[in-house]
Design goal:
The protein has 115 residues and is an alpha/beta fold. It has three helices and five strands, in the order E-E-H-E-H-E-H-E.
């Protein structure tokens, strides 16, 4: 895992580069948040490939469990990927609603993140 730092006037973002699954469960999430927080970052940018596919199946409730950790620890999250391959309307609605706020965002490309 490698971290690329992006700084704006307000936020310091950790872009996580890895070929591995980094978030498989809530414990992985908490460990990642703690590691990034103690390095002084305000936000984490992950790629879809680094998150277990079960996350995107809302029936597993894993997305809620994982995202609650980010909310509880006030760590912003951006997940970059192609979410069109997931067919469920519930997930599409979930992504749409998440993107209205600033805490959790799902984006098609890194350039949409505005760091």
């Amino acid at each position: 895992m490698r971290i690329i730092s992006h700084q704006t006037a307000q936020l310091k973002t950790a872009e996580i580069i890895s070929d591995d699954l980094l978030i498989v469960n809530a414990e992985d999430t908490l460990q990642l948040i703690v590691d990034i927080y103690y390095q002084g970052f305000d936000r984490i940018l992950l790629f879809e490939k680094n998150v277990t596919p079960d996350f995107f199946d809302l029936k597993t409730r894993l997305a809620g469990e994982i995202l609650q950790k980010f909310i509880n620890y006030k760590m912003r999250l951006i997940i970059v990927g192609d979410f069109s391959k997931y067919s469920g309307q519930s997930l599409k609605d979930f992504i749409y609603e998440s993107n209205k706020g600033k805490q959790i965002n799902f984006l098609a490309s890194f350039s949409e993140s505005h760091y």
